[in-house]
Amino acid sequence: MTATTPPPLQGPTSKEKKYDRQLRLWAASGQAALEESHILLINSGPGVVGVETLKNLVLPGIGQFTILDSAIVTEADLGVNFFLEEEHLGGFRAEHTCNLLKELNPDVQGHYITEPVESFLSKPDILKPYTLILVSAPISPELLSRLETNAVASAIPTFYIHCIGFYSHFSVHLPSAFPIVDTHPDPVTTADLRLLTPWPALSSFAEEKTTELEEMSHHDHGHVPYAVLLLYYLEEWKKTHNGQVPQNYREKIAFRDMVTIGARTNNPEGAEENYDEAVAAVLKSLNPAEASSAVREVFQAEECKSLTPESASFWIIAHAMSIFYKNHSSLPLPGSVPDMKAKSADYIQLQNVYKTKARQDFAEVLDTVRSLEKRLGRIVAIDEKEVEAFCKNAAHIKLVRGRPFHVTLPGEGVRWGDRAKFAAQSLTNPDSLILLYIAFLATDAFTATHPADDLGGAVKAPGEVDPETDAEKVTGIALKIIDDLISEAGMFIEEPEYSEVRSKAGEYVQEIVRAGGAELHNIAALTGGLVAQEVIKAVTKQYIPVDNTCIFDGVTSKSSVLRF
Amino acid sequence: MAEDSKPNFSNGAGAQRLRWKYLDNILNRPGPFTDPDWEPGEAVVEGLSRAKILGAGGLGCEILKNLALSGFKDIHVIDMDTIDVSNLNRQFLFRHADVGKFKAEVAARFVEKRVKGVKITPYCGKIQDKDEDYYMQFAMIVCGLDSIEARRWINATLVGMVDENDPDSLKPLIDGGTEGFKGQARVIFPTMTSCIECQLDMHAPRAAVPLCTLATIPRQPQHCIEWAHIIAWEEERKDITLDNDDPEHITWLYQKALKRAQEFNISGVTYSMTQGVVKNIIPAIASTNAIVAASCCNEAFKIATSTNPFLGFPETDNYMMYTGDESIYTYTFQHMKKPDCPVCGNLAKNLEVDPAFTLQDFIESLAERPEAQLKKPTIRTEAKSLYYQSPPALEEQTRPNLSKKLNELVSDGEEVAISDPAFQITFKFKLLFSK
């Protein structure tokens, strides 16, 4: 880089222009992951929610999509599905929705399959080409179960989606270990300045910048960066507190008062912005650099402790990171410095002090990674950039463990396992939508025993013809699920709460049955937005995904995310 | 209900109505949450097809599609913008070949062609071009506008239109907005429930970087870009009007900023960041827009049909906040109407001020204060005119006041009236001196 020649101007490419508003969120790396993905939609019922999901994925530019749907376009489709036209009546819904979706983005390839799900799934390795699978209800529980088993075997994230009337639900079955490094934490809350444990270079920088603080001109005094001020006052504090930094809330408040008093008020402004910033930062900056429970969970994971030559690079780096943490009682320094009132040169110098330390920490972790690779006999080295990204966001990494769907196989009840207690307690929580979720499970159980015909595993929705009778049946199933849950959790719900739970469940069922299997376009569009967003997270491995069940109630406009 | 007979509707009976089979399940059947007095069936369907509804703004594509497939038949749309290539990642009614055309026109034609039987009337211009007579024709208004100013304008207009003796003059306003993975949908029944002005402080403007930082002590790449944008352009290209969409202009700013950053050893200035800072670009994605627009249209549908309770009914929830970057989180609540709301309240709003501020300082602070957000205020007390932005003669006459301190001009607790060319109403503030 030379300062004399102006750099050649690299204007944005046409792709960067088209995707500008999203690249500012998930960057080129996220976009590349999207463009390599191939999403399979297994569609059924009115089939709108799946198509709306794909719309929101074709627009940002996934690589490919495939729609599996054997339905024929009917008049009813035209009143609810935006991606069909009159001339498509009688044709394959998969074919025509695929074609109209493709028009949204010439960079995306679309495919369709009109084969029934049952025969499609009977072929070996049929799911292998896909990055992620979307299944929309209704689908027979046997097929859902078979599909889930196959997808899990290939570690393909799978979504199971309901959308009926004003309600919707989806569950995500992620791979058994789904780690995320790029979680995009809120930059305001993530400044990591290590003021309680400064390293020698930082301490001497602070000392140098605060020599004769009292004698400084107003201008200089008002431009000492707040991080430096806090380091200075911590040293002052330690002098009268046996060399200890403030230990608890009360002491932090006392320390904050000490900083406040240090500000000059006899200057023309009557106050100092850098001191204001320092005072405001006391409570959030003076915390020990301990790893969060989410990070410790990663360190304690079996995959992290027992590495194998086949371990994913995430685990190798996590292992190296845990060694670093053991040795230093802190994670690698991220190295970024929030903006603060300061002279340009001082701020840049301070930034460099942090950057240098961050580079050292990163080098240490990288060394450990390389020696682990050697010990394990791995041939392909992990990309340095991956290790660097991990170091930068070490405090905010997240591990999600994929969990199976509740599949209502005939003759088998719903089992809640380790989540039984949580689920049973949620029954009486007015903010939880678990009863709506149970209403959906009861709907599944109903359709499982009410086939519309004997072909291709098609199922019938409750309320299509006789809402009153169906509502009674589905309510009965829902109440059984509730009772089984309470007994599985070994709990007891007293009156009047128990009756309230039952009547609330009955209302959700009635509202579902009222729709008779219909999708309302608005709810399908909204749910298609939610699912698409979660697909983007799963494909880009950025942001934090839903773990693992999301329910939306369009009557009250409320949602609930529950882990089952 | 004993049987699920298909009623014979006067508007498009038989085969035509088959198309709305799914929607009709909801329109023809009561549910556990519908009002006991609600009568499902033909009247509901009729009402839906007669209701004239207005959609506007950046969420327009989603709103038009959703309203058309909710059974609305007479939809109007207002949008002043033309299609830009950066819209194509989410505004799904537009294609590359449409770049440069009016959004309202292209969107209306597309949805009319796709959804048979719906009439969409576009207007390519600003919502501010239209008067009360125009807005009076609609049953309700669904907005996905991208500026706070436009929201405040339509809100104040609709509040101003309410005539207690004419129930038809009350037009529900449904508003949606997004930013990246976040958004909100809210319903306002003008004068009855909390309005957009009552909720103004929930959408605080971003704090501007002080000029002295830009001029003398830049630390961030953004500071260098703002310097090029605000200071360098004024100094070196004063005679050329800066056009944010002109690549030559952005390139000039980028190179200026880059050079300044190098002088100060600041890294990170890029072309994309320059564009982002200069145009104040807000990230926008298809999925969030879909969620927020659909939530708005779901409320519009419920209001038009009474098929279920809706947001905004007095004394109930009226606001849904959405966040999607960390799992999915919604918070649905009742935002309370403010008695001192300058638009729908009747009390002056308290505003704490430093009595040592000059009028000039005070005027500048009004642009940034979350509860005011007024950029070109004209200020008067009951007794005297403090400052007029225009006409020039009055401006000149009141200009000397700008350098006077507030405590020389008003007394503690005195009421002032502030108007701003962006709004058609006067804001009443009570100035309380800070101690």
From TrEMBL, chain A:
One of its GO terms (molecular function) is NEDD8 activating enzyme activity. Pathway: Protein modification; protein neddylation. Keywords: Ubl conjugation pathway. Transmembrane segments: none annotated. The keyword Zinc-finger does not apply. Pfam families: ThiF. It comes from the Eukaryota. One of its GO terms (biological process) is protein neddylation. GO terms for cellular component: cytoplasm. InterPro entries: APP-BP1 (IPR030667), ThiF/MoeB/HesA (IPR045886), ThiF_NAD_FAD-bd (IPR000594), Ubiquitin-activating_enz (IPR035985). Residues 19-555 form the THIF-type NAD/FAD binding fold domain. The keyword Transcription regulation does not apply. Regulatory subunit of the dimeric UBA3-ULA1 E1 enzyme. Belongs to the ubiquitin-activating E1 family. ULA1 subfamily. This is NEDD8-activating enzyme E1 regulatory subunit. It comes from Glonium stellatum.
From TrEMBL, chain B:
The keyword Amino-acid biosynthesis does not apply. Its EC number is 6.2.1.64. Keywords: ATP-binding, Ligase, Nucleotide-binding, Ubl conjugation pathway. One of its GO terms (cellular component) is cytoplasm. GO terms for molecular function: ATP binding; NEDD8 activating enzyme activity. Pathway: Protein modification; protein neddylation. One of its GO terms (biological process) is protein neddylation. SMART domains: E2_bind. It catalyses: ATP + [NEDD8 protein] + [E1 NEDD8-activating enzyme]-L-cysteine = AMP + diphosphate + [E1 NEDD8-activating enzyme]-S-[NEDD8 protein]-yl-L-cysteine. It holds the Pfam family ThiF. Residues 351-434 form the E2 binding domain. Coiled coil: none annotated. Belongs to the ubiquitin-activating E1 family. UBA3 subfamily. Catalytic subunit of the dimeric E1 enzyme, which activates NEDD8. This is NEDD8-activating enzyme E1 catalytic subunit. It comes from Glonium stellatum.
